[in-house]
Amino acid sequence: MTDVWELVRAERLALVDDLAALDAERWDLPSLCPGWTVHDVAAHLVDNAKVTRFGIVVAMARARFDFDRQNQQGVDRERGATPAQTLDRLRAVADRRTGPPAPLDSRLVEEIVHGEDIRRPLECVRDYPAEAVERALAYQVKTSVSVGGSKQRVAGLALRANDSGIAIGDGPEVSGPGAALLVAVAGRTAALDALTGAGVDTLRARLR
User: Fold this and answer.
1) Which one of 64, 76, 133, 207 is most buried, by most CB atoms within 10 A?
2) What is the three-class DSSP state of 83?
3) 159 in helix, strand or coil?
């Protein structure tokens, strides 16, 4: 398998390229993350890239162990005064190889899902490497919702990617592009329109 950090670096640089083409006002569009703009999610990815095993403990303590507060504090800290400044910060962390005390494939989930949080409102399409999507989806579906995964959401469903050989689980089928499957099981209802199959209504209900 490819070194996960090489896959992460490729996603960071691809997003830098897409954001570099934007007019400044488009950075203010709402992302798929409720309450966050495209600019906010980009800042969140800068903060994510700087996470260390010790640093996340300190950050959570400062946020009084409120995960949402900790994330917002990271956005406030890393969001530049201008989109150009935030873009420079995102470019500067592309090569970082640090993360929280979690399996490394969780870093792929962060980059791809948040990449789609940005790209979908902008109607910007990326052809993600199949390996990156497969590893991210495999990690996501075996990880509990309580720690950011999707295990309970996909229980009893069969996920099938129609653009690769990804096939996970048994039961009523949910099929579509691999990236759309990943984004949907990660809790984004906007991706459901790209999916078909007898299991889509079940997944939709669970996302509510």
Assistant:
1) 133
2) helix
3) strand
Distance CA 171, CA 157 (A): 5
What predicted TM-score, i.e. pTM, was given to this entire model? 0.94
Domain with 183 in it: 130-207
**CA dist., res. 130 & res. 99, Å (int):** 23
CA distance 30 to 118: 8
Cα separation, 23 vs 7, in Å, equals 27
Q: Which residues contact 105 (CB under 8 A, 6 or more apart)?
A: 4, 135, 136, 138, 139
Nearest to 44 by CA among 84, 76, 66, 69: 76
Encode pLDDT of 156-197 as tens digits: 999 999 998 899 999 999 999 999 999 999 999 999 999 999
- C-alpha to C-alpha distance for 9 and 116, rounded to whole angstroms: 16
Using CA atoms, how far residue 15 sits from 42, 62, 83, 141, 144, in Å, is 9, 30, 13, 24, 28
- Domain boundary pick from 95, 122, 149: 122
Note the residue count of the chain. 208
